[in-house]
Write a structure and sequence with these properties.
The protein is of the alpha/beta class. Helix content is 26%, strand content 29%. Strand 14, helix 9 and strand 15 form a beta-alpha-beta unit.
Length: 319
């Protein structure tokens, strides 16, 4: 292994620069990982295009990515060894590099995977976060469920809800390709836009969008929920302060639940098991692949809502 590595640096919104820098040194309980694969997440994109409220360019090298798979090449962990293949969340979301650091609490070993299927393993990270969300919902067998958004997160929600026995799921999504995928694969009812007839109709409402138009989504979620219903906020907003329909929230005795940042050691493991056990279901979510050197093009495609994009894969071409 050389002393230097190739990495990407976002100097200005929307523009990556490829740079060479020293391979980072690892601290106690950390590992150094050779990048193999990663997938883009909706929470990465606002950092790329400059709309994230807390993060401004230039970003630290390797940001922003966190759904990663690679091989450990150096370890200061008692739990992981050199040569282990792992699902990993890079420290500081800095995974757009030939090598990256991760803490042992945010990695899980990948065992029994076929080489051809390893590129689907990054899905285990968002699957794990959604398993955490669904665990907070409780019994769903007889629930009438509404989901806003059928991007990667919405598709995964629908897939897991169906695997868990949900029988009545409706989705709101203007992209016809995404609706067709959910309908053909999972028999999900879908409609392009929210309608007033949805008011007071659903036991459970899930915001799987965030970002653009989230204020309307949250308020329409509140309107859509039945009395004593539950609203799950999964989408991460780019606007911190928003106007919420507090009147109906209180009058309907609704529960609003935020569900990000689970106990990673538990839910990364469960996510890996879920994906590995249901590969035929999850494979179709990967729609595009780009080399790491073309990450900028991958992010640009991710930002377009009028395409047949669900999940986008990056693979290492830096060596």
């Amino acid at each position: 292994m050389t002393n230097n590595m190739q990495t990407l640096k976002l100097e200005v919104p929307g523009k990556f620069t490829s740079v060479s820098c020293p391979i980072p040194e690892i601290a106690k309980n950390d590992v150094l990982i050779k990048f193999k694969y990663s997938m883009l997440c909706g929470s990465d994109y606002p950092k790329f295009n400059g709309s994230c409220p807390d993060i401004t360019c230039p970003l630290p090298i390797g940001m922003p990515i966190h759904e990663c798979v690679g091989e450990i090449v150096a370890s200061n962990s008692n739990s992981y060894n050199t040569g282990d293949l792992v699902l990993a969340m890079p420290t500081g979301d800095a995974g757009l590099s030939d090598y990256f650091i991760a803490n042992e609490k945010k990695i899980i070993k990948l065992e029994g995977w076929q080489d051809a299927d390893l590129k689907y393993a990054p899905l285990s990270q968002p699957v794990g976060t959604i398993l955490n969300a669904i665990d907070k919902i409780g019994n769903i067998d007889d629930k009438k469920i509404l989901i806003f958004g059928l991007g990667g997160i919405g598709q995964i929600f629908c897939s897991i809800l169906k695997l868990r026995g949900a029988r009545d799921v409706t989705a709101i999504e203007p992209n016809k390709f995404r609706c067709s995928m959910a309908n053909d694969k999972l028999n999900i009812n879908s409609i392009a836009h929210w309608e007033t007839s949805f008011s007071n109709q659903f036991d459970l409402v899930i915001d799987a969008v965030g970002q653009k138009g989230q204020e309307d989504i949250i308020n329409n979620s509140i309107l859509s929920a039945k009395h004593y219903g539950k609203v799950i906020l999964f989408g991460i907003p780019t606007i911190k302060n928003q106007t919420i329909n507090i009147y109906h929230l209180i009058r309907k005795n609704l529960s609003i639940v935020g569900v990000i940042n689970p106990v990673w050691e538990k839910y990364l493991k469960e996510g890996v098991t879920m994906v590995q056990s249901n590969l035929d279901l999850f494979r179709s979510l990967l729609t595009h692949e780009f080399p790491l050197s073309q990450a900028e093009s991958a992010f640009e495609l991710f930002g377009r809502e009028d395409t047949d994009r669900i999940k986008i894969l990056l693979y290492n071409d830096f060596n």
